[in-house]
Amino acid sequence: MSAKITSTFFENKSTIELARDIIGMRLVHELDNYTLSGYIVETEAYLGKTDMAAHSFRNLRTNRTEVMFGLPGTIYTYQMHRQVLLNFITMQEGIPEAVLIRAIEPTKHSLKQMERNRLGKTGFELTNGPGKLTQALGLSMQDYGKTLFDSNIWLEKAKVPHIIEATKRIGVPNKGIATHYPLRFTAKGSPYISAQRKNHISDFIWE
């Protein structure tokens, strides 16, 4: 049975552990007239001051990154190429690390509204990328700074993946050794993973 996570979920875990543990959770966005959701199948960890690929590398503190220095479970949204990307802050206050949500598997009841939100896109293209899933879920920059515990966005324990794969992150060029960190985590075989190859799709994704 699904259950909302609380702040205790983030306790005594590293950002890498959390990026793995979030795989299979149901990401929920409750709106006025309907609720949209999907199971997380792909994440990336960003390790703050020591990670050249992180917005908060060297503890950089700007208007955009300020929320990253907040409490775990805080929502960090930012725009890239006119798309909104969704992150969750992971560590205790003052340590600016986060998990980027890269892809979700839509729940059946969400499909039709997600297709409307995505302007007619269907199938795996619906949510197989970080900007695609936020558009499908109706998320925006107005969600910046909310938390997973007292807002209309939350996580529920839901599914358990058979295998979680770790590979290097996508779109992180010219960041020194950080380019090659194996900090991208996926539910192996999911067709909703971004840049998924057809011959890697499996029917045995969840336990």
Task: Indicate the structural class.
Answer: alpha+beta
Distance between the termini: 14 Å
- Oligomeric state of the chains in view: single chain
Largest sheet: 9 strands, antiparallel
CATH superfamily grouping: Methylpurine-DNA glycosylase (MPG)
Write a structural description:
With 207 residues, the chain is an alpha+beta fold. The protein contains 3 helices and 9 strands. Strands 1, 2, 3, 4, 5, 6, 7, 8 and 9 form a 9-stranded antiparallel β-sheet that branches. The longest helix is centred in the middle third of the chain and has 8 residues, at 130-137. Its EC number is 3.2.2.-. It holds the Pfam family Pur_DNA_glyco.
Relevant terms:
single chain; 207 residues; alpha+beta; 3-methyladenine DNA Glycosylase, Chain A; 9-stranded antiparallel beta sheet; 9 strands
In short:
This protein has one domain: 3-methyladenine DNA Glycosylase, Chain A (Roll). Helices cover 11% and strands 26% of the residues. Keywords: DNA damage, DNA repair, Glycosidase, Hydrolase.
Blueprint (SSEs and pairs):
Layout: E1 3-4, H1 15-21, E2 26-30, E3 35-46, E4 75-80, E5 83-89, E6 98-106, H2 111-117, H3 130-137, E7 153-157, E8 164-167, E9 184-187
Antiparallel strand pairs: 1-7, 2-3, 2-7, 3-6, 3-9, 4-5, 5-6, 8-9
